[in-house]
Amino acid sequence: MSANSKPRASLPPKLIIGLGKFVWTRMWHIMMSKLAPRNRSGEYKRPESEFRNWISKDANSPHLAASERYQLIVGMSCPWAHRTLVVRALKGLQDCISVDLVYPDPLAGGWVFAEEKDGCQRLADFYQKLQPGYTGRATVPVLWDKEKQAIVNNESAEIIVMLNAALNEFAQNPDLDLYPESLQTEIDTWNQKIYETVNNGVYRCGFAQTQQAYDRACADLFATLDEIDSVLATRRYLCGDKLTLADVRLFTTLLRFDVAYYGLFKCNRRRIRDYQHLSGYLRDIYQLPGVRDTCDREQVKKDYYGNLFPLNPGQIIPTGPDMEDLLEPHQREWVEKTVRS
């Protein structure tokens, strides 16, 4: 540097960091408002599903029970859609109900089909085509009536109830009842608690926009996981020795927990593999006939880390955790034997 040259003026690092933080925070809130609606406390509030019709054997129903008439539109990474695939597999409805896959695309503003479906590349356009003027969210799963060219239902909790009973005459496992009348009150009680604190609870953690909202969601999540782990010390499944829809609804969240929610959603007090009974319970359901084929943890990792830009701006996808742990012996049979003895 010559004697006459002057050092270039620069903004103080503190000011640069402060400005960058302000701009990013503002952008983050804007993106999060589109991704995850919140209340005044910064808590994530999941919108209600809007298509709530049912498959029925009633001759007056617009959606009659029939084989090969209905299709599930699902994303493999979505836990809500995954529920429907698990019940479809357990009931043996693969020949009765076809599946069409969609994939998340942030640039397209949501889910897209691998190939155009009825002239639509985006799921949002498919919703609009089937119901012109629709302004709600284009979510999965979708139970689609191919004959009527209409969406029957897009609420996973109701779709799995339908798959459990409405198409039994076409099912390979018609005697499997995942929602028996004698257990419905207990199943519904578990479902309500698990939905708010676990299924939606992980999203309440990941999409929280204030520290207070996150702290409440995280406390609720792990209080319920701790409670469930204690219950599973004396029961093979949530309602006893038989698998029910309550277990299916919990399973799809647990499968994604260590892969995505633990890190990306800041649900990092404990992993599922750190729980003595929950970890074996997860392996137990995963190893049931047909269930493993519905699971794609690599796609889960890719979609969560690669597409939820506000939570992972660098879009770096972690290499772990090891997926082979789900194939280890679950040793849950001893719970039944211990209780019966």
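the 2nd protein, sequnce then structure:
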Amino acid sequence: MAINVGILGHSPGNGHPFSYSSIINGYSDAGLREAGWPVIYDYVRRRHASDFGVEGLRVTCAWTQDAAVTQALCRAANIATAVASPSEMLGQVDAVIIARDDAASHRRLAEPFLEAGIPVFIDKPLTLDTVELDYFRPFLETGKLMSCSSMRYAWELDVIKAGIADYGQLHVLRGTIVNDWARYGVHMLDAIFPLVQARPVAIRALASRHQSLAITMDDGTLVTVDALGDAPPIFRVDVLGSRCHSQHDITDNFSMFRRLLSEFAAMVEFGRPSESAETTVWVLKTLIAGNRALQTNQEVSIDDAQLQAVV
């Protein structure tokens, strides 16, 4: 099945439009080298030709807020058509990838496509607002919307998923990231929550020089996330159980992006919710509750109906 995809938007410091499109379409060596994303160019050019292409997807249209960036994206990833506005993609594409990570823009960009029945992938975090989450939730549950961090699909975590029973009783799952909770906390929540059956109950901020949060799960397991701010790159998951413990650094961007895009392709082709739909709701509720915990310095309950401070 051929699936024509439109790619929308870009955010400063986020090269996902270039990485996603290059993985799907293949890439122009000169175009990607000159696009200004040396890290992406470096890991893409190390891959074998057979690693490119994703289950019938083809990026055929592109739009960003800057015409020069759009043209660079089209050159880098062999995209045929640059459009002047997102609405021009309606009727031309079967699916859309919104590759901006500024949550405030997501509903505005996605709504015309979702309301037209066009499946959408939205870069993380989907939203930091409970009202918007209520809007997005039916689309997540009916297989019209997917949104998560690619770290949900990191192969470095496969060994944990396959052998989670070997850890015995889980005591602590710890995630460590750079930058801030609001934009990067989603990486660790998406990495950790799929590893366990438990659901988050409450979250509190810990006294620290950086943003550090502790999440209580409904089985008593503790999940901690440390967002180190301006620090050397790190995306790490530690698992500590009664029988064993392990540490996992997540470094293979190409593979986790490709896995994520494959899951999106399956959602589009078969019209079913992605495996991430339910987890996405819990991740976002936890992310929103964590923002409130940081603002109020109170423990905040993570409730399916509402988010409230625990007095």
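The first helix runs from residue 16 to 25. The radius of gyration is 19 Å.
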